[in-house]
Amino acid sequence: MANDEQESETEAESAADETEREGERVMSRADGAGIIREVADGVENGTIDIEGENGFTVAVPEHFELEVEYEVTDDEAEFEVELEWQMEDGEPVSADE
Predict the structure, then answer these.
(1) How far apart are CA 47 and CA 40, in angstroms?
(2) DSSP track, 7-54
(3) What SS3 class is residue 4?
(4) Which among 24, 56, 65, 69 is placed 20 to 30 Å from 79, CA to CA?
């Protein structure tokens, strides 16, 4: 597999009934922007669909907490966007405004 197509996906389930899915791969700016646009469209529509072998669907509430982080060290930069909300009985709950 070529370096720009390398992909790593993991799924973990803890004893606290927590499920985590994570994927990582090297890609071009154009491909990355396309994925971010798909996620943004899903947020706006209320459902994010991640395709692939370990794909999943996420229901997004009307209001949620958004965190943006940029971190730079001597040899690496990291930019993260995180959406967070409460869950009740397996359903997303809107955050208070």
Answers:
(1) 10
(2) EEEEEEE-TTS-EEEEEEE---HHHHHHHHHHHHHHHHHTEEEE-STT
(3) helix
(4) 56
Cα–Cα distance, 94 to 77 (Å, whole number):
32
Query: Is pLDDT above 60 for 12?
Result: no
Q: What pTM was estimated for this model as a whole?
A: 0.75
**Around Cβ 61, how many Cβ atoms within 10 Å?**
15
Residue-wise pLDDT tens digits, 42-97: 999 999 998 878 788 999 999 999 999 999 999 999 999 999 999 999 899 999 86
- Is the Cα dihedral 75, 81, 86, 88 positive or negative? negative
- CA neighbours within 13 Å on the CB side: how many for 70? 0
Report the C-alpha gap between 26 and 24 in whole angstroms.
7
Query: What are the structure tokens assigned to 2, written together?
Result: 């070529």
